[in-house]
Amino acid sequence: MKRKTFLRAGLATLSIAAMAAMSACSGGDSGGGEAGGSGSETIALGFSQVGAESGWRAANTKDIQDTLTEENGFKLSFSDAQQKQENQIQALRSYIAQGVDVLAFSPVVETGWDAVLQEAKSANIPVILTDRAVDTTDDSLFASFIGSDFVAEGQRAGDWVVENLGKDLKVVELQGTTGSAPAIDRKEGFGKAIEGTDIDIIDSQTGDFTRAGGKQVMEGFLNSHDDIDLVFAHNDDMGLGAIEAIEAAGKKPGKDIKIVTIDAVKDGMQALVDGKINYIVECNPLLGEDLAEIAKKVVAGEAVEKRIVVEDAAFTQEEAAKVLADRTY
Ligand code: GZL
Ligand code: ZN
Question: With bands split at pLDDT 50, 70 and 90, how would you rate the model's confidence at 25?
């Protein structure tokens, strides 16, 4: 996995990791053995996943479960929160009670985590964020963030629209989950790209990253507006739902109404090749390898990068046709 790293670890992170190493070693270890490294004991990692709302999420879950295996030095406890923050907090609390060596989760929304993160810190259990970020004032509450730059993804989508579809367009926006980092940041990035043009977002609503949500909201947009040029969907699944609504209204997606989405999962890339979507910015879901590496370092008390940004690609219809057969997700 190609990646850029940002922000060397702060001392605070180091001290959390060192405390974690001591607590891991104090768990009956003969002392000094690196947990999950050359030592025999495995790393108990508790993971709270957002849900199973999209193709991206399914690929992300599969990669984590395929990578954090016993033979790779992990005992993985995994839970699906059905996109509810209270379920994630409950799962994290149960892992803390179990005394796992390290916690990891993808926060469904940005805010509301300080209390449970403080509880993890008090229990000397380091926390790794994957995929989505939290808005916290105290960044000693997590050891590292691994994921994409969503503002850049939104901006890349907007830049392509400005360069390829024109500067005077009426756009409807299918937003991701309200309050989630990808929804907030992709909206911000797209907005930056269209600044100073006559590209107007005439309507914008959340479809909660699901296909059903995208279809339902797009039906509403089609009832309210007869001059839509472009759909900007924060993920492929909502874009695929919009395709169903556009076709049901007797219009041609990708032609009468252009569509730009983010993720580049298999179903989205197929629609791109079929000409129903015009451009997709990738959001790489394969975070398992980085998570495993960072978890081993944190438990061993080593310094870790505070923020690891994974590289994303982007595809036109022609580019998608070349790579579709080789895509693993
Ligand atoms: C992005 C991830 C988003 C995807 C959606 O990293 O959080 O959540 O773009 C998924 O498909 O539901
Ligand atoms: Zn934010």
Answer: very low
Q: Examine the pLDDT at 326 and tell me if it is beyond 60.
A: yes
Q: Is 153 in the pocket of ligand 1 (CB under 6 A)?
A: no
* Ligand 2 centroid distance, CA of 120 (Å): 22
CATH topology (fold) of 3-148+284-312: Rossmann fold (3.40.50)
Report pLDDT digits (tens) over 264-286.
Answer: 999 999 999 999 999 999 999 99
Q: What ranges do the domains of the chain cover?
A: 3-148+284-312, 150-283
Per-residue model confidence as pLDDT tens digits over 156-183: 999 999 999 999 999 999 999 999 999 9
Among 263, 280, 286, residue to substitute to test ligand 1 (most atoms within 8 Å of Cβ): 263
Q: Which atom of ligand 1 is nearest to the CA of 285?
A: 6
Q: Provide the sign of the torsion angle of the four alpha carbons 268, 211, 176, 239, taken in this order.
A: positive
The dihedral region occupied by 17, where left means phi > 0, alpha psi between -120 and 50, and beta the remainder, is: alpha
Report the topology of domain 150-283.
Rossmann fold (3.40.50)
Q: Is the model's pLDDT at 95 over the cut of 80?
A: yes
Domains 3-148+284-312 and 150-283 share a fold: yes
Q: For ligand 1, say whether the CB of 148 is within 6 Å of any of its atoms.
A: yes
For ligand 1, say whether the CB of 182 is within 6 Å of any of its atoms.
yes
272 neighbors 239 (Cβ within 8 angstroms): no
Determine the distance separating the centroid of ligand 2 and the alpha carbon of 184, expressed in angstroms. 7
Nearest CA to 142 among 26, 308, 287? Answer: 308
User: CA 287 → CA 86, 132, 211, 219, 248, distances in Å?
Assistant: 24, 11, 23, 34, 37
Residue given tokens 């926390």 in the structure block = 127
Residue 177 Cα to ligand 1 middle (Å): 9
Q: What is the mean pLDDT of residues 315-327?
A: 97
Closest atom, ligand 1, to C-alpha of 132: 7
